Request: fold
Amino acid sequence: MKRRNFIKLSATASAIGLSPIEIHAALEPLLTLSCPNVSNRKLVLINLSGGNDGLNTVIPLDQYSAYANLRPNIKIPETGGLSYLNLDMSLPSNQQIGLNQLV
Reply:
């Protein structure tokens, strides 16, 4: 579903929710959505707050030296108590990422 269609549909759904019951019942068959197979989809939510940003939340391990050079004062260390969590060791080395454990 395209974003524009979603916005139109949500605006219509909001207006119908405020309308009398008869209008809602008459238009209900028109508002049913056909949903594709979503069994293989995953939802990932990343909460960014304060001084945290996307690069300090998900750390590209194959480019850690470049990351460390760009953020010398705020980088997440490779070792120690505040180090990143390696999410999946079974991935190829160029796809491995670390997660900031303070997030």
Summary: The radius of gyration is 22 Å. Helices lie at 3-17, 21-27, 54-57, 64-70. DSSP finds four helices and three strands in the chain.
